[in-house]
Automatic annotation (TrEMBL):
This is Acyltransferase 3 domain-containing protein. The keyword Zinc-finger does not apply. The keyword Transmembrane helix applies. Residues 508-547 are annotated as: Disordered. It comes from Xylaria multiplex. Keywords: Membrane, Transmembrane, Transmembrane helix.
Length: 565
């Protein structure tokens, strides 16, 4: 009972948490990230393996694992956002085929003389099925977490070797090099595992989306390999057509990887600039990418980088230097616009995909949509639906995350144990949602409706619940067995094999350098969770939303955390 009581306490957000100035996505305690799934006194190998099969969300409350969720810090809430975003994407995929007549239309829109007034269509409520808007959130999170470590270094005035510019630049170069090399392994390793698993499931499992077009399993596997190669191609910036069959959500991973390369270039380019110069360049690149080629994805990443810069160098500091006087906005001067931005951002992220100007409040805002982002423009871009969704989604994701950066209370709500756990497993959850949809939820829905005469809504509800439970449990195994294995592999290849940032007597620890989120996304936050020695000057790679990013956590000193402008 004590174990369950402590778990419930975590869900309610206990007040004894200590917010640290880092971006951990798993705890720094080695016992939380090793494979000791049950308390050490239980040495029976059979029992240990049987209990290892218990998902963490079951084993932890029962006291059958020593692993723990990461300690709550000032950035843990980003993990919670990423977990919620993955769940919302799953919601869209589960509902889009069964409620297509109204699910993508605004509340109050009129079609064929009939007014559509379903609860899920209401503004803000429809955010629960706004998967496209959550992709924008993934990409903004990726920009934040990929640039966090480097921007912390260049903005931290308390850094002991501040005068040693050569040392700082070498350290930054090592960090960027490590992140760049690890990124592909972290993103595409789990995706290749997913392709392999999905190929076997779709070929042999007699229900769900069965595919026997290939003459044998080897040809079937090769077909899935070709789909994966399409996603992993970093040189193709156009829309992915066709999307990878059976795991179409993976289209975001290719975009995510290209955004990573853009981010690493931006980090290297702006590292020596002043904070005002860096903000100016970031804003210019975001605006220019949108104007020249409608690259909303690049704008999202730049928005995340700007948020990270504002965390360490608020606008109030720039204004103070300009007028040579201290400027600290009052708490309410920050909280009121922050709350507005969160609400307005959620509204924009949930913009309808069909009949975008069919009802208020979208009709009034529609006039502000640039013509090139409206329907039938014929503009080639990397998205599967109309451009207005991504235009407003980009703006909404930035506003929402900026607002959350200013609201510690909401950050605590997003840092409860359940959301931390969902954030830890979010990349696996995102990857596996296709199987949960096609081989669990949909088959149950069809059986209940077609063979047992259940109503449409009742059959969908049962299929949705069971499919979601499957996704959560399967994601737990995928996270522990596959996702974290590629975290270790990425670090081993880059640090131990290629020698990036390796120090003498630096031995590889048997722990994942995991993170938030994302990203992409979709999957999206930084990591300070590995158990290296103080002298191990390497960069940690995390998960992305899409979603796995890299972060350097060697600076043990606290970093300023400012919530003013």
């Amino acid at each position: 009972m004590d174990n369950i009581r402590r778990w419930v306490k975590g869900f309610t957000g206990s007040q004894d948490r200590q917010y640290e100035e880092a971006l951990p996505l798993t705890t720094t305690d080695p016992q939380s990230i090793d494979d000791d799934w049950i308390p050490r006194p239980r040495e029976n190998p059979t029992v240990r393996w049987l209990l290892f099969l218990l998902p963490f969300c079951i084993a932890r409350p029962l006291g059958l694992t020593e692993r723990r969720l990461p300690k709550t810090t000032s950035t843990t809430y980003l993990n919670g956002i990423r977990g919620l975003a993955c769940w919302i994407v799953f919601n869209e995929h589960m509902t889009m085929d069964k409620y297509r007549d109204f699910i993508f239309k605004p509340y109050g829109a009129v079609k064929d003389g009939k007014k559509l007034e379903h609860f899920i269509q209401l503004p803000f409520v429809r955010a629960l099925i706004a998967g496209k808007g959550m992709v924008c959130v993934f990409f903004v999170l990726s920009g934040f977490v990929l640039s966090y470590s480097s921007l912390r270094k260049v903005n931290d005035p308390g850094r002991p070797n501040k005068q040693d510019k050569t040392g700082n630049r070498d350290d930054l170069l090592t960090s960027v090099s490590s992140m760049t090399l690890r990124r592909a392994i972290r993103l595409f390793g789990p995706m290749l595992a997913l392709a392999f698993i999905t190929a076997f499931v779709t070929y042999y499992v007699p229900w769900g989306s069965v595919d026997h077009q290939a003459p044998n399993i080897f040809a079937h596997l090769y077909k899935f390999w070709l789909s994966a190669v399409t996603v992993m191609d970093p040189y193709h910036w156009g829309r992915l057509k066709p999307l990878p069959r059976h795991y179409g959500q993976a289209w975001t991973l290719g975009v995510e990887y290209r955004l990573s390369l853009v981010m690493f270039l931006m980090i290297a380019t702006t590292a020596t600039l002043t904070t005002v110069g860096r903000k100016t360049v970031i804003i210019f690149v975001a605006a220019w990418s949108v104007y020249c080629n409608r690259r909303w994805d690049v704008a999202c990443a730049m928005g995340g980088m700007l948020l990270a810069e504002l965390r360490f160098a608020p606008l109030s500091d720039d204004v103070s230097r300009l007028f040579n006087r201290s400027l600290r906005p009052s708490k309410w001067f920050t909280i009121v616009p922050a709350v507005f931005c969160v609400l307005f951002g959620i509204l924009l992220c949930s913009w309808p995909e069909d009949m975008p100007a069919g009802a208020q409040p979208y009709r009034s805002l529609w006039e502000l949509t640039p013509s090139s982002w409206r329907p039938d423009t014929g503009h080639g871009s990397p998205e599967p639906v109309g451009g207005w969704v991504w235009w407003w989604g980009t703006i909404g994701a930035f506003l929402m995350l900026w607002g959350l950066e200013q609201l510690p209370l909401l950050q605590k709500v997003l840092s409860v144990s359940f959301l931390k756990y969902l954030g830890e497993t979010s990349y696996a959850y995102y990857l596996l949602q296709g199987l949960g949809h096609t081989h669990v939820g949909n088959p149950i829905y069809r059986v209940l409706q077609d063979k047992h005469g259940w109503s449409h809504n009742s059959a969908f509800t049962v299929g949705y619940i069971v499919g979601n439970i499957f996704n959560v449990l399967a994601s737990d195994y995928f996270w522990r067995v596959i996702d974290e294995s590629f975290v270790r592999l990425a670090r081993y290849v880059v640090v131990e094999w290629l020698g990036v940032g390796k120090q003498p007597n630096n031995r590889l620890r048997n722990s994942p350098d995991s993170a938030v989120g994302y990203t992409p996304v979709p999957t999206a936050a930084p990591a300070a969770n590995d158990d290296r020695s103080e002298s191990d000057n390497t960069t940690v790679e995390e998960n992305d939303i899409a979603l796995k990013e890299g972060f350097d956590v060697n600076n043990g000193g606290e970093v300023r955390r400012r919530r003013d402008w």
